[in-house]
Amino acid sequence: MPEDERVRVGRLRWPILIATREQTPEAAGVGIVEAFPAMASVRADVQPVGAMTYWGSMQTDSPGITHRIFIRWRDALDNTTVIFRTSLRNDGTLRWERFRVRRCKELGGRKRFLCIECELEQTGTGNNPDVGQ
Q: Which domain of life is it from (predicted)?
């Protein structure tokens, strides 16, 4: 499917948060503290990538792209950008996923949609998707 012509606004059904990752050294000097101070909420189409290249049991596509996320055009997304997707479970708990942005490309040459190729970095449950664990 050529994604540049088949993205429709109605498919942007997932609410996601786009944030910039800020890393600072820990006071003790043995680790890194991550913070995501400014988050923007947008709608997206999140699609898992099905085909990966393997040699033996290792993925050879490095870095590994696990998802493509389609959003309306947005400036200034780089490799410090993090995307969160949250969903509420039936029992009332929050499930969240954190994606690391690897590449962005404009679709169709009209600055209407953006395809973001991401790597699933972390998943979890709880009420705080913005803590670096």
A: Bacteria
Taking the CA atoms of 88, 96, 64 and 36 in sequence, report the sign of the dihedral they define.
Answer: positive
* Phi (first) and psi of residue 17, to 5 degrees: -115, 130
DSSP 67: E
- Tell me which fold the domain 10-50+63-125 belongs to: Thrombin, subunit H (2.40.10)
CA distance 116 to 67: 8
User: Three-class SS of residue 5?
Assistant: helix
Give the residue extent of every domain in the chain.
10-50+63-125
pLDDT tens across 71-101, in order? 999 887 888 899 999 888 888 888 999 999 9
Average predicted confidence (pLDDT) for the chain: 82
- In angstroms, the CA 59 to CA 120 distance is 14
Which pTM was predicted? Answer: 0.77
Bridge partners of 15, per DSSP, are: 43
Cβ count within 10 A of residue 96: 18
